[in-house]
Queue: 3 jobs
Job 1
Amino acid sequence: MIRKVQRIVFLSLLAVIWSIQGSFGCTNFIISKGATIDGSTMITYAADSHTLYGELYYQPAQDFPAGSLRDIYEWDTGKFLGRIPQLAHTNSVVGNMNEFQVSIGETTFGGREVLFKQSGAIMDYGSLIYVALQRAKTAREAIEVMTNLVEKYGYASEGESFSISDPNEVWILEMIGKGEGEKGAVWVAQRIPDGYISGHANQARITTFPMNDPANCLFAKDVISFAREKGWFDGKNTEFSFSDIYAPVDFSGARFSDARVFAGFNKVYSGMKQYEEYALGNVKHGGENKFPSNRMPLWVKPDKKLTVQDVMGMMRDHYEGTALDMTKDIGAGPFKLPYRWRPLTFKVDSASYVNERAISTQQTGFSFVAQSRSWLPNPIGGILWFGVDDTYSTCYVPMYCGITQIPECFKVGNGDLLTFSETSAFWAFNVVSNFAYLRYDAMIPDVLKVQKNLEDKFVAYTPSVDMAAQSLWNSGKKAETLQFLTDYSVNQANGMTIEWKKLAQFLFVKFMDGNIKKEKNGVFERTETGMPQNPDQPGYSDWWKKVIVDGTGDHLKMLGEPSH
């Protein structure tokens, strides 16, 4: 009975976590084995919401008696949807990675509104993710679990793109329900070719797909016939485009969503310039083709093989160096702030305008890079590089998938969005980022310096930690291995949080009152008598001064000469 109560509490907490994310707020990249320098696979995920509190949840492996049922709660509302049979044994899950190094992320693309509601459906997108992680040992098994569940119990969500990985394969699965009076979903899953990368960000990405290649493409048997029945498609099967039929791209889909995929690709692939106009929202239709003619490809081959830090870098972007660069227009203010406070659109004189939606955004609750490594035992091979708050200024710390305890700084219930906690990483990182937003171009270098020092240390330590853990594992000390990995992960995360609190104090002292105090290597300079050196007062840039004068005319103009 105690276990059942604990499980209900856990599921309820997760339901709250997912319900507050909202739709259209996430970004994923998918990195194949052949595209990485060490042969690992990776997926990324940023969970973005203005009401999401960043935590790392954990579900241990469990055994259940025959006939047990699993309660399913809708992730967006916490509403009870129904029950499905429970397995005799479930996998342990740390965040979005299970003990077999299988990871799943998602982004909501919505799609045709008529397909959203399905009365009696039990499986929503969030439940699909965590049930699959508890049941699957490979990415293919996860796809099978997810698609079988919606076929049997119905699909209770809008259109979703899922990133699914294991140590050898990476897939994108796109799914949308069949609407009222129907049951289940239509879907397509494609394996990302070895050596390539993919991504999705709240816009369906799969267009045409091979129909006789089950090693690399799986799909619902009625994915095309269902569209024909609805009158949405009447062409040849080979011309069928999942995205263009079930979730057509428009200005918003390109500018707010696919533009983020463009930006991430642009950081590692030099051939993205040709898609910049599309990223700006200029969706073109060529000739008689009713589908857009200038869409980005589903996958690209990076210019070089990627490290885990390269992939972290893909998650840190404000469109720098592109036509959407958020540091270049007047909205960045005098300190080149690459963020725009919401709402996402605004009107002036009846015309509508946009605030860019970048990968790095202020409202991120948590993000991760899930790395799976086939040459190591599963508990050691899987690392969830986990961070909270804004991806640009977060620090990704390694959480091995074999851990059996969550660090205090990431624990569910250690504070919430309305309750400040001194031991919470989410609050420590938000204090730093929100202070840095005030004078961004001056402060962000200090933040990135600490970030780099810590992440470089974590990456440098990884081979030694792997070796020590593998030595324990090979000698038959499996419990000791898991405890070693747990102690290491917990210590690094809690230590990182302490360092971030020190960074907050340093930034406050250095930048208070609009001054910039003099310091060298983190030590503030004093006079011979121990007084602070006179601080720098850099003021504003010349271009911003001109903006002020143009906007105020002679209102601020001095009359006569200054008296001192």
Job 2
Amino acid sequence: MTKTMPKVDVVTVGVGWTGGIVAAESAKAGLKVVGLERGAKRGTEDFMNVHDEYRYAIRYELMQNLSKETVTFRNNRKQRALPMRQLGSFLLGEGLGGSGTHWNGQTYRFLPYDFEMKTMTEKKYGKDKLGSDYLIQNWGMTYDELEPYFDKYEKTAGISGEDKNPFWGKRSSEYPTPPMKKTPLLQKFEKAADKLGYHPYMVPSANLSEAYKNPDGEQINACQYCGFCERFGCEYGAKASPEVTVIPTAKKTGNYEVRCNSNVIEVLTKGGKATGVKYIDTISGEEFIQPADVVVLTSFMMNNAKLLMVSNIGEMYDPATGKGTLGRNYCYQIMPGATGFFDEQFNTFMGAGALGMCIDDFNGDSFDHSDLDFIHGANIALMQLGNRPIGNNPVPSDTPTWGAEFKKQSIMNYTRSLSLGGQGASIPHKENFLTLDSTYKDAYGQPLLQLNYDFTKQDIALHKFISDKSAGILKEMGAKKVEARAPIDHYNIVPYQSTHNTGGTVMSLTPEEGVVNKYLQHWDCENLFAVGAGSFSNNSGYNPTATVGALAYRCAEGVIKYSKKGGSLV
């Protein structure tokens, strides 16, 4: 029997960065908020144990249980989509804090070009630069409009960085904390990049360079450079994450309740408005209804899209006709780069999730694309993440895959190889989209989300260009042997590449172009909001978290405004 809970002002579906930000701001404004998180409760105290690489980095302790819910995948509509049985290409987080618990902490703002790509590209290169199969559109917000929210997010998270990049948008204030340590390895990259005429700067980091108290009074500690960031929670409380920042802030108001092990399976509607959500207690199997005046979808972008689809809210995208917006503009990222093998040794086993130096000379439209068959580019970085022994085994490509020579090269190159990586921007294509699978269901009886995706000509050309540029920097750094990453052809669900999935519930200026408006308010359901990387109409050459955080603050502002006066906010 379904139990109906007392009505609240706001219910959020997912308690990570977006859910935590919306909850904190709404609760501070006096609204009663419930956060529903399908994973378990966890926090800094849960990570005060031995650094277990096998448990967390290989067996994915903090990730989604695929025996209960996964996605199906195919490259194109002619193929049969099959379930993803192991976490491969991307890692879907689960539990209090979401992916904000186990992220690396690289915290870039998207470029002004990202928000107005259609207008800027057409103005400089004409309307037919890529062709009509690419679904390029403006976001509906400019960088300048979003800048105050970027600033607020960075101050909440205490981001460590330096304003030395000539290509990004103007900032209203300096980073809250100074950049991380510039190690000998990073100095080597900086020297080579300077000599080549590039503009190196320290990667903006949520692994803090010094202890910091944010404007809400939450304490974030200084990074210990242990190298266990990505796929791990931080036992020092030194990585800005929702559990040490916005969630405690929300709880202090007395207006916020978190319910873990609560999996939302449907957004309930009546008369064109949301009335609440239906969820299942994943421990007891009991079913509940949580009524609310405002519903905010704040889970991972794939789940936001799926919830709208199974709840029949909005028109699903049809690639055959081009009609519909829900599921459209799915974008991923490509991972070009190169590896250099050196005679000298480096302390590659030490580091942090966002310890690095990078350049944006080939990102966005910071270079001329007139004679190139792609647009945008990639941030190119040398990251000193802390190479853990199980997951890192760099050897030259001509090394045998077993035997004495393999062992020799493995031992030799573990501390004598460096890789430069580019995060290649992804441009939406009409055949890359999300929909519901017609065959497979999850443990709760709902259809699985289906991913239809393959690399495009744009991706292939950009990958080669950035890999070649990365190889050039490594040569300047003095590598005795340099190997650019192999060209890409078709996307495969394995191995791991990036969790930077975007699109599906894009933000837009008009209902015909997207799912939500520039307050992240649903075009067809005024008291329903959906915020996250799904809001992006294209992916950038950066990590998405800072832009997700900025949009969450924008969404929270919309929720508060709506709670006061109702109606469409645009």
Job 3
Amino acid sequence: MYLPEDATINNIVCYLRRSRQDIARERRTGEDTLAAQRKLMVDELERLKTPYDIAEEIGSGDKIETRPVFQQVIKELKEGKYDAIAVKEIPRLGRGTYTDMGQIYDLIVNKRIFILTPFKTYDPQNSADLRQIRFELFLAREEFEMTRERLIGARYTYAKEGKWVAGSVPYGYRLNQNTMRLEPYEEEAKVVRLIFDLFNNGLEGKEVSHKAIATYLTRLGITSPGRAARWNFLSVKRILENEVYIGTVKFRTSRRVKNRHYERPQSEWIVVPGAHQPIIDKETWEKARAKINLKNTSRPHVKMDFSPCELAGLVVCAKCGKHMIRQLNIQHYRKKTGGTSVYHKEFLFCPNGCGFVKYRDVEAGILNYLEQLGEFDVQKLTEMFNETYNAQKEAAATLDVAEAIEQKKAELRRRLNFICEKYEAGIYDDQTFLERQQEIKREMALLENIPQNNKTPDDTEREMVTLKENIKTFLAAYHAAKDKTAKNNLLRGLISAVYLTKTGKGKFNLEIYPLFSFTK
């Protein structure tokens, strides 16, 4: 590695990433190829006596959009932070689409970015070097396409032979690395049989849904397919609909276009019955399929409505602190006379399994509380809220609230920096990063809205007068509103939080905290 005499290179970025060959070699030998690559490049760069930074891609991907570290490198090259990029070989820059290669090529040429490798330095103003860069980029892409074609061809051949090449191994099976065929794993296989038995025959003589089966398995302490403690209804549904459990291998049933999956025509599918030992028999499978088809045909398609419901984001489980979630179940019951009855069951349940209650009962409880609050005279309201104020004052005597809030904010900022580092390192994908970022932002917003209670009794009395007036206005507007989201906005403007404690079957206590900001 050397620097051209006529070149001004003040800063270098060294980009490291694993190639597909590196990943394959690591699987065979356990060698850390990225560490070996780093040592090679650092040894070469140290000889140049020029400042350099290391940009290390933890993951791997053929497209720029799947390599967050390289995206940052491109950004910094465009900004002029670096004059050269050091790589083990030019193909390390990418084997992506021709659009990706064009973006890299244009950047190198327009900014005169030198490419430094252990064996040669490429100057984009040298026509011979530029020709070599174009050739290397083109050859890298062609080599990638040829390798992919060979791998796809091999997978098609293996699939037609009944070997497993369809991704992660299904729950209930293990993959024999020698034969590349699935073999039942009895500890999980018996759970699969239990799921089909519960779905086909019910529990204690009663029909059970996917969610009920998931809850039952969780209570038994059985580990889910994702190795989590809790099962969810989707895991149960996938098992009941997967033909792998009767020994059938399916491959090439869908295609992916820009991270979206589309079903292929059945004429293109590769289907191999009897490819491996089944976990359930054909009769059990057919019975489950008939039941699933009956459920699907008996229920008309309903357009999903994701707008917030009346109590969205308000009710918190007092036992575990999780926000409780609305669930609507539509039950069809066959009458003795031959007809069908349809029942809409609306519940508010804790995602941690602490319990569930009727949704409309909770809504009625909140409205009843507000109605009673609006009927109190101002003096009684003032006394009640002054008691609350004094209790809060005594509790705060041993705690610096402002300091605690600042400590929590500092912790949230550390968490945000941590997930940013993981995202930049390629450990978190876009969706995971955005979800965790939004969660932290929500917590930060809640901290910003915590009031500092410095009101005097006179202030409280004045607010109680406004409170009574606003409650009357609120109740009239709430009962007149037709839209559930409008009702939610009204409640959230009046109530900070509602803590629910389940006390028995269908029974619960509500601890309601009104907002004071609405009185201003």
